[in-house]
């Protein structure tokens, strides 16, 4: 930047520099011409003048620095306010507002140090140049003229309906091209920063190394210092601009893919969302790096919105099925296809098939389709049953998929450690693809976060051949951590630092790292302390709404801290303040205490049954929301995360490899794995599913695992879950498949002993013969065994072989061809 | 307070079943499962501290993580092991 005021200050600095050169010359002259005593006296005087000039230079440089800072902040605030006004997403608006507030404070501080003359000059300068278009060394927004053009395009979202009417197929393309032009402009600015830095660097070299008043060593030192500042400014500017580009892409994605701005009743409108999404591939950003970022952001935006995800998914499926030219690719099934015209059983059958597909092929899309069909069931009771089954299958699919993803992520991270970028990308992309298929749930969120983290590793350009580049990366990350007050960049920085070859340099960076860590930690602790104090104050003044809000906010920040003593202290403090809001005393007093023998084991059995069918059960405590234990495969994940957190905390102190993960803890995990190994086998899954069905059908859920319950009692006996034969018209009713009325007095047909045969007393009929029209296939004993019985056994032989009475078992009924039909208790089949 | 394993009780509007109990630091702790309206188990588990005739929900994360849940987890392991032993053998 340049104006009269800046020129004046620069002139003053130059004059001071000239004066210093002159005074140094005088010193040299005095040395040559004056006796030593006089020379020392004269030198002392001259030094005072030099010192005074140097102070003048420092003061003027400080003025210049604050003047320029105030100028750029003002510009930046202007753009941020523009962005704030045009942003429609509340969360993004909040983020922008936060940035505006922070920069306003910074601006006030910069202005406070300026003289009235400087302020007046600055104000006039800004007034004359309200929308600066020239490039600046510090963070700068994209050319505002282009920005305005973009916002004034027909895609104004002030009124959603006009948005719709203005967007035909060509409208979408036009929009994309306009947005692309803006993005390309921003990216060109970003890329120009490197060149600009090079230029500034050359100027700096020229300026410093042409000085004659300082030694070579001083020149080197001065250059190193100033170059570091210059480099950091560039890194900051790059980082800032990249952020702006990301924000722009995200805001564009949110507007263009926002289902709410479209007409909910118009299928065409939904298709436009998909079509716009396709524009990203049809007209990608030229720059590969940002093109990938754009794709990633669009995927994120889509994955964050269930409705949007559904729309994209449906149209993608349709397109894959019918191709672009299909007449029926509007993404919606025909009503006739969904609403059963003849028999709702067709619908049930379809859902059952989808459940089966989801379970056996781990097909999340089938699950989504099943969910859609369940919504169409008109009978509320049946719908409820299918809902229950849906959740069972849902958890199962998510769990299995999550297991696959965690394995892939571990492989990816391992490949990263081994610098095998091909494998790293391959595993990461596979994991990402599977993650995208997952239905919306907490697991998906956690996995997506982990993918993001591991992906960020890949963004680190670690190059052993170019250590200088690594330094820059580290500095960029440290700056990012400081600016955003976040630990995440530190994790990667720590990794890079630990790989530095030069010990001396390494120690220096460790120092920077620790200072940054302490800084971020302190800022967070201060904020938490403040929030907790305010929460307590709010509680005392009866402001319960604010009390909860402030407490939640504090706890959320606590949860971002690494595992340290400070975190523990803050958690304890939050818990203390949280306990203030507990309910009144009388609620804490337990009432109606009753002994329920075996119920704790039944509860545990419910948890165990959950494992077999994929229900993830979390043990947790409120209000801190800390996940402390988990009883399924998710345990491995929790264990790993916890190990990572510890390793990270350790890394902060020792600067060793900070991502060294420890294996999940032994114990519960090991046992669950053992169970799952069995349950994962086809036979195991089948057994467990049959067992659950048996429990549901018998109506006595506690007869399965040593009298432990595995499903709520209110499940109807007609419930079926995935993987089991759906009841058909041939399913026997108890009346059809019943035990012969004469069973207790049946003709003697099988003699268990020779004596019985001889006397003709005590003989029994084989179990199979007890049924009139059907046969028994599998039998579940009350202690949980699943037996494929030999039909020739008599009840006594069965009892002596298996130690239980057949009458107490749950029986699987088959037709004469051996096809499984239903489950019944023996008692329910007695006539 | 004499609440034992298998004791079901009400706290406010909610019903709980005691899964396990533990004495630690002179205090008694309960590991409970919240029950639904039909008195069937839910996915919600809590740790309560007995103080006189009152139950306080334990929220001290360090205490929970380092001691209480570790111990409760061990006890649950033993019970799970018992159930697992009754499952059909692999293969």
Main traits of this protein?
heterodimer; A: 831 residues; mainly alpha; two-stranded antiparallel sheet; 7 strands; B: 91 residues; alpha+beta; 1 helix; globular; disordered C terminus
Major β-sheet profile of chain B: 5 strands, antiparallel
Strand order of the largest sheet of chain A: 5-4-6-7
Biggest sheet record of chain A: 4 strands, antiparallel
Global outline of chain B: globular
Low-confidence runs of at least 5 consecutive residues of chain B: 87-91
Number of strands of chain B: 5
Shape of chain A: elongated
Supply the helix-strand structural class of chain B: alpha+beta
Major sheet strand order of chain B: 1-2-3-4-5
- Low-pLDDT windows of residues of chain A: 130-168, 260-267, 324-342, 609-672, 682-751
Succession of helices and strands of chain B: EEEEEH
Specify which chain pair forms the largest interface: A-B, 65 and 52 residues
Number of distinct helices of chain B? 1
Descriptive overview:
The complex is a heterodimer of chains A (831) and B (91). Chain A has helices at residues 4-33, 36-86, 90-112, 116-128, 144-151, 160-166, 169-209, 216-256, 267-282, 288-304, 306-322, 335-338, 344-361, 364-375, 380-417, 421-437, 442-459, 467-484, 488-498, 503-540, 544-558, 565-580, 585-588, 599-612, 634-654, 668-680, 682-698, 754-759, 795-802, 826-829, and strands spanning 591-595, 618-621, 626-630, 775-780, 786-788, 810-814, 820-825. With 831 residues, chain A is mainly alpha-helical. Chain A is elongated and about 135 Å long. Chain A contains 30 helices and seven strands. In chain A, helix 7 (169-209) packs parallel to helix 9. In chain A, the strands form two sheets. In chain A, strands 5-4-6-7 form a four-stranded antiparallel β-sheet. In chain A, strands 2-3 form a two-stranded antiparallel sheet. In chain A, a hairpin with a 5-residue loop joins strand 6 and strand 7. Chain B is an alpha+beta fold. Chain B contains one helix and five strands, in the order βββββα. The relative contact order of chain B is 0.15.
């Amino acid at each position: 930047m340049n104006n009269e005021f800046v020129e004046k200050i620069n002139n003053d600095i130059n004059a001071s520099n000239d004066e210093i050169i002159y005074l140094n010359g005088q010193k040299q002259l005095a040395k040559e011409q004056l006796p030593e005593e006089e020379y020392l006296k004269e030198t002392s005087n001259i030094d005072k003048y030099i010192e005074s000039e140097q102070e003048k230079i420092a003061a003027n440089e400080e003025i210049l620095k604050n003047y320029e800072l105030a100028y750029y902040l003002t510009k930046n605030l202007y753009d941020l306010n523009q962005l704030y006004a045009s942003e429609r997403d509340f969360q993004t608006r909040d983020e922008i507002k936060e940035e505006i507030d922070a920069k306003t404070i910074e601006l006030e501080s910069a202005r406070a140090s300026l003289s009235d003359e400087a302020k007046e000059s600055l104000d006039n300068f800004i007034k004359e140049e309200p929308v600066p278009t020239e490039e600046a060394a510090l963070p700068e927004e994209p050319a505002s003229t282009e920005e305005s053009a973009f916002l004034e395009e027909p895609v104004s979202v002030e009124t959603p309906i006009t948005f719709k009417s203005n967007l035909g197929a060509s409208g979408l393309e036009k929009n994309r091209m306009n947005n692309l032009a803006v993005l390309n402009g921003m990216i060109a600015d970003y890329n120009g920063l490197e060149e600009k830095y090079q230029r500034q660097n050359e100027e700096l070299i020229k300026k410093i190394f042409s000085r004659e008043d300082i030694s070579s060593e001083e020149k080197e030192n001065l250059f190193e210092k100033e170059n570091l500042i210059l480099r950091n400014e560039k890194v900051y500017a790059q980082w800032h601009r990249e952020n702006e580009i990301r924000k722009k892409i995200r805001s564009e994605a949110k507007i263009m893919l926002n289902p709410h701005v479209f007409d909910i009743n118009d299928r065409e409108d939904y298709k436009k969302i998909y079509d716009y999404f396709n524009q990203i591939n049809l007209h990608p950003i030229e720059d590969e790096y940002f093109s990938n970022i754009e794709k990633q952001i669009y995927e994120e935006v889509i994955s964050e919105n269930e409705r949007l995800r559904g729309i994209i998914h449906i149209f993608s499926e349709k397109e894959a099925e019918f191709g672009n030219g299909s007449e029926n690719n509007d993404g919606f099934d025909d009503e006739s296809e969904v609403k059963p015209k003849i028999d709702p059983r067709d619908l049930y059958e379809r859902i059952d098939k989808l459940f089966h597909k989801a379970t056996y092929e781990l097909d999340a899309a089938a699950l989504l389709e099943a969910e859609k069909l369940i919504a169409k069931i008109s009978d509320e009771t049946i719908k409820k049953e299918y809902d229950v089954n849906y959740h069972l299958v849902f958890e199962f699919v998510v769990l299995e998929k999550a297991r696959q993803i965690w394995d892939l992520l571990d492989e990816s991270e391992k490949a990263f450690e081994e610098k095998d970028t091909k494998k790293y990308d391959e595993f990461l992309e596979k994991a990402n693809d599977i993650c995208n298929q997952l239905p919306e749930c907490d697991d998906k969120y956690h996995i997506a976060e982990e993918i993001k983290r591991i992906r960020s590793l890949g963004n680190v350009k670690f190059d052993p051949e170019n250590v200088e580049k690594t330094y820059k990366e580290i500095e960029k990350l440290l700056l990012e951590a400081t600016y955003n007050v976040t630990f995440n960049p530190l994790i990667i920085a720590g990794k890079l630092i630990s790989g530095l070859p030069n010990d001396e340099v390494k120690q220096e960076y460790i120092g920077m790292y620790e200072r940054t860590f302490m800084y971020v930690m302190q800022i967070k602790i201060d904020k938490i302390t403040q929030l907790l104090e305010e929460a307590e104050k709010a509680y005392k003044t009866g402001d319960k709404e604010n009390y909860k809000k402030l407490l939640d906010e504090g706890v959320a920040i606590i949860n971002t801290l690494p595992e340290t003593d400070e975190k523990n202290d803050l958690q304890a403090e939050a818990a203390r303040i949280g306990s203030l809001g507990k309910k009144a005393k009388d609620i804490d007093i337990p009432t109606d205490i009753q002994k329920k023998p075996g119920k704790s084991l039944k509860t545990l059995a419910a948890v165990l049954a959950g494992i077999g069918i994929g229900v993830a059960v979390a043990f947790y405590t409120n209000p801190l929301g800390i996940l402390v234990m988990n009883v399924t495969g998710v345990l491995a994940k929790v264990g790993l995360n916890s190990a990572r957190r510890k390793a990270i905390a350790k890394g902060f102190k020792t600067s060793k490899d900070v991502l060294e993960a420890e294996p999940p803890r032994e114990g519960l995990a090991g046992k669950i794995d053992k169970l799952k190994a069995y349950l994962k086998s086809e036979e195991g899954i089948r057994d467990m599913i049959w067992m659950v069905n048996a429990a549901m059908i018998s109506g006595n859920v506690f007869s399965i695992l040593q009298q432990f319950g595995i499903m709520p009692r209110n499940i109807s006996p007609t419930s079926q879950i995935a993987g089991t034969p759906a009841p058909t018209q041939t399913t026997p009713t108890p009346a059809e498949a019943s035990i012969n009325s004469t069973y207790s007095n049946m003709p003697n047909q099988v003699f268990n002993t020779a004596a019985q045969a001889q006397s003709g007393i005590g003989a029994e009929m084989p179990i199979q013969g007890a049924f009139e029209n059907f046969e028994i296939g599998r039998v579940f004993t009350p202690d949980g065994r699943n037996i494929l019985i030999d039909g020739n056994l008599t009840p006594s032989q069965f009892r002596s072989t298996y130690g239980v009475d057949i009458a107490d078992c749950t029986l699987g009924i088959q037709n004469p061809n051996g096809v499984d039909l239903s489950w019944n208790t023996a008692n329910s089949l007695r006539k | 307070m004499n609440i034992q394993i298998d004791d079901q009780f009400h706290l406010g509007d909610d019903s709980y079943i005691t899964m396990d109990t533990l004495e630690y630091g002179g205090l008694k702790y309960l590991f409970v499962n919240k029950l639904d309206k039909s008195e069937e188990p839910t996915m919600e588990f809590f740790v309560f501290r007995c103080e006189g005739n009152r139950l306080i929900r334990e929220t001290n994360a360090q205490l929970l993580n380092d001691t209480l849940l570790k111990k409760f987890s061990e006890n649950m392991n033993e019970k799970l092991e018992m159930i697992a032993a009754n499952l059909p053998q692999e293969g």
